[in-house]
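At this stage, I put together a protein sequence along with its fold in token form, as given directly below:
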Amino acid sequence: MVSEEEQIVAFLFKRSGKEEMSISEAHLTLSMDLNWFSPDDAKKFIQNVIEKKLLQKKAEVVSPSFEIGKINIPLGFKPSINIDRRELTKEITAENNLVFEEIIEKIKDLGEENEEDILKRINQVKKEKKTNIEVAAAYVAMENNIDLNELFNKIEKTIFTKNKE
């Protein structure tokens, strides 16, 4: 079965009509042209698919390591939020992830949105406000009038821990 990462890579190269492209061109296409990822998340995605050997890297140029012509790209293809979430949470430590998950659960408890929509809103706020994921999640929660007083110390600790790294 074809992974979503393979579909994204195939789409990227089929769209460009090129067999190889610079890493910066790949980042810019995923973030600015397609608006699928923030610039940082696009860089993480490219690094991730290089590590998974879906892209071959030579100097600052990448090319698919598989036959992109054999990959079926559905009409209107756009990556699912699962890719975004995995990349967004990849760098978060277990404790940080718990704070993020707690905030998401509080928003989900309202019963107005499913997790995918909540994550899309959080990612949108993260991009628009140019902030980290925990602050964006807290912002979305507060927009929904959710009391986060008991989590503020954890959120603060998480933010300052990440900023020291």
In short: Confidence is low (pLDDT under 50) at residues 84-95. Residues 135 and 156 are 9 Å apart (CA to CA). The longest helix spans residues 94-108. Residues 4-78 form a domain with the Arc Repressor Mutant, subunit A fold (CATH 1.10.10).
